[in-house]
Amino acid sequence: MQKNQIHIINGPNLNILGKREPSIYGSVSFDVYFNELKNLFPNVELHYYQSNIEGEIINYMHKYGFDCNGIVLNAGGYTHT
Description:
It is built from three helices and three strands. It has a three-stranded parallel β-sheet with strand order 2-1-3, with helices on both faces. The protein is flat, with a radius of gyration of 14 Å. The protein has helices spanning 22-25, 30-40, 54-64, and strands at 4-10, 44-50, 70-74. By secondary structure, the chain is α/β, with parallel strands linked by helices. Helices cover 32% and strands 23% of the residues.
């Protein structure tokens, strides 16, 4: 049985989650959250990608978006700029 594939994509500044203003954003890195997700959903093949460059995020979605079951996009700073 093939696992479902989900790609999680984070946008700008989410690579410093847990380091940047921990009093506002918390002190936990996304790697910790990602490992928790993998443990919670062992039958799902999870992939993770982060970029601070909009074009790279779009290229990633074009490369993998048609061959997976879904994409979760946290666009970060792109949601308000």
